[in-house]
């Protein structure tokens, strides 16, 4: 019997790590194929055809429409590779500026 595989991907945090890598090594890899990546780690005894991959992310609407559209296009491409997409939302955070310089 072959092993079943489940891969869970924190897409938004992984995206930021890829950004750091790209700046450091001047290598464009943002459009990474997670299916190929996951399958490259599997053995012959693993069931590659039944590997379930779930990609968690959120649309950063605060960045702008163009960025959201690129993100949606990428998610569509991942979905085409039979990767399940689960979208969350960013939590609103209120930031209060501290005027007390003694606490800085």
Written overview of the protein:
The chain is α/β, with parallel strands linked by helices and 104 residues long. It has one domain. Helices cover 37% and strands 16% of the residues. It is built from three helices and three strands, in the order βααβαβ. A three-stranded parallel beta sheet has the order 1-2-3. Strand 2, helix 3 and strand 3 form a beta-alpha-beta unit. The longest helix has 16 residues.
Provide a short characterization of the protein structure.
By secondary structure, this protein is α/β, with parallel strands linked by helices.
Task: Please describe the topology of this protein.
Blueprint: E1 6-10, H1 11-25, H2 34-40, E2 52-58, H3 65-80, E3 84-88
Please describe the biggest sheet, giving its number of strands, its sense, and whether it closes into a barrel. Answer: 3 strands, parallel
Average pLDDT rating: 85
Total tally of structural domains? 1
Query: Would you list the SSEs in sequence order as H and E?
Result: EHHEHE
Total beta strands: 3
- Estimated share of beta-strand residues: 15-25%
Uncertain runs with pLDDT below 50, 5 residues or more? none
Radius of gyration using CA atoms only: 18 Å
- Through-space gap between termini: 60 Å
Structural class: alpha/beta
Strand order of the largest sheet: 1-2-3
Number of helical stretches of at least 4 residues: 3
Bin the helical content: 25-40%
């Amino acid at each position: 019997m072959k092993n079943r595989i489940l891969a869970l991907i924190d897409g938004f945090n992984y995206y930021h790590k890829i950004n750091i890598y790209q700046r450091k090594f001047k290598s464009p890899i943002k459009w990474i194929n997670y299916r190929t990546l996951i399958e490259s780690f599997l053995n012959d005894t693993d069931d590659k055809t039944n590997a379930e991959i779930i990609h968690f992310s959120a649309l950063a609407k605060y960045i702008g429409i163009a960025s959201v559209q690129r993100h949606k296009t990428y998610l569509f491409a991942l979905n085409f590779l039979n990767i399940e997409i689960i979208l969350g939302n960013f939590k609103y955070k209120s930031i209060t500026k501290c005027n007390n310089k003694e606490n800085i």
